[in-house]
Specification:
Subcellular location: Membrane
Distance between the termini: 35 Å
Number of strands: 0
Radius of gyration: 22 Å
Organism: Rheinheimera muenzenbergensis
Shape: globular
Membrane topology: Multi-pass membrane protein
Helix content: over 70%
InterPro entries: O-antigen_ligase-rel_domated (IPR007016), WaaL-like (IPR051533)
Number of helices: 17
Domain O-antigen ligase-related: 223-366
Largest sheet: none
Strand content: under 5%
């Protein structure tokens, strides 16, 4: 076996391990934690350089990769311009934080570049999706056990737990968002395993197939989904839970119309998640508390809407070129009217914060980049014959819809682990559409 082959085979596993690691140290939302994350990505880039040098590997293995990477590359370059303040009219109110955000964006760019280079087959994509499912299951199990045990401080990093599960994250809504993204891909994988043809055979054959199902990947994935749903419910995140089930319903409905031959158990699977997971398991683990929080939500008791309203003058002032990446906390206090009940270093609305910090034109470009991924997911479900790619497209679309909804009231893309997972899912949307057909793989 050559060195080039060894590195190529190792890279999908290594990239998956990075995704598993990212949420463990407080969601990588501390300087030392994201420095470790960046070091791991840099190590991956170094391994790739060795592999590319020995095998004359091209910088981009396909033309579509350049189009996909163009928007995040432009974003990172623009953040750097803001930090350096060399171009008249493009500057930052907080150059230090803009430089840090430019660095983080650069490493996100490098990571999805590596994904595009190495996740070029069904088996490699399965390795990566498996890592995401494992990560979500571990986070859900850890957060649920601590919450149900009633511990005041978590064993890991001694984070104050309160009455909501938060895994190894500091903020429970980031935990809920992370689980929802992992859940989406797990459900997509289950759907890719479902048969499209009606079962034919005698009772003995049906029983044999039923037993095979119990021992198959579908059952293990279904158990992982149950564990993650428990964690999601215990997070008590209102929008995290609401956006997940809305995204599941919308994606399932679209899949029924997009698939040429929808899996015959697609509807029962979706219904089982709503009935079994939401109603039965939810009743056991406190979905009523989430419902109560939703019912008690009011504009009088919430201050997030005040933050949004008080931020509008900032948007009017900086709509074209932005105030600088990471500068919201620096510029917002001058526009804050009165004292809030909480501490707001973010806008609790990623769309608003991106528009204020980067300007409306670049924010719209990033939005178009995300919406294009949604369109590719639809096209993959409509046109591709590889069942796993179609399942990944289902999961990626569901994750994308969840993020579109959840980001209206939170700042999930400001958390490094969540941002890394989300851009990886956007990359999977592209890969599921563009990767070549796998010879011999089960098709429909």
């Amino acid at each position: 076996m050559t060195t080039q082959t060894s590195i190529s085979r190792f890279m999908p596993l290594f990239l998956g391990l990075i995704l598993i690691w990212a949420p463990i140290p407080l969601g990588s939302n501390r300087i030392w934690a994201w420095s470790v994350l960046h070091s791991l990505i840099a190590l991956g880039v170094g391994l790739h350089c060795v592999n590319a040098f020995q095998s004359a590997m091209p910088l981009l293995r396909a033309r579509w990769i350049a189009r996909f990477l163009a928007v995040p590359a432009l974003t990172a370059a623009y953040m750097l311009l803001q930090a350096m303040q060399l171009v008249p009219g493009i500057s930052s109110a907080d150059p230090y934080h803009s430089l840090m955000l430019a660095q983080r964006s650069l490493f996100l760019l490098l990571f999805i570049w590596l994904l595009c280079q190495y996740i070029d087959s069904v088996s490699r994509m399965q390795t990566l999706v498996l890592a995401i499912v494992i990560s979500g299951t571990l986070q859900a199990a850890y957060g649920s056990m601590i919450n149900l045990a009633g511990l005041e401080l978590s064993p890991l990093f001694a984070v104050a737990e309160g009455d909501r599960a938060r895994g190894s994250f500091v903020y429970q809504n980031h935990f809920a968002n992370y689980l929802a993204l992992c859940l989406s891909l797990a459900i997509g994988w289950i759907i890719s395993e479902l048969a499209t043809e009606k079962h034919r055979g005698n009772t003995k054959a049906k029983l044999r197939d039923a037993l095979g199902t119990l021992l198959s990947t579908k059952m293990l994935l279904r158990l992982a989904v149950v564990v993650m749903v428990i964690g999601l419910i215990l997070s008590r995140s209102r929008m995290g839970n609401s956006a997940f089930f809305v995204a599941l319903a919308v994606t399932a409905l679209l899949a029924i119309f997009c698939y040429k031959k929808p899996p015959r158990l697609l509807k029962p699977l979706v219904l089982s998640i709503f009935v079994l997971d939401l109603i039965i398991i939810g009743a056991m683990f406190g979905v009523e508390k989430v419902k109560q929080r939703l019912e008690e939500t009011s504009f009088a008791g919430e201050t997030r809407d005040e933050v949004v309203r008080h931020s509008m003058p900032l948007l009017e002032q900086h709509w074209l070129t932005g105030s600088g990446a990471g500068s919201f906390y620096t510029v917002f206090p001058a526009y804050q009217q009165g004292v809030y009940t909480g501490f707001y270093d973010h806008a609790h609305n990623d769309y608003l914060q991106f528009a204020i910090e980067l300007g409306v034109p670049l924010t719209l470009l990033l939005g178009a980049w995300q919406l294009y991924a949604l369109w590719l997911c639809l096209q993959t479900m409509r046109r591709r014959n590889t069942r796993f790619y179609k399942g990944v497209a289902f999961g990626a679309m569901m994750a994308n819809l969840h993020m579109l909804l959840h980001n209206t009231v939170d700042f999930n893309l400001q958390a490094p682990a969540n941002a890394l997972l989300f851009v990886s899912i956007l990359a999977l949307s592209q890969l599921a559409y563009h990767n070549s057909q796998q010879p011999g793989f089960l098709q429909q």
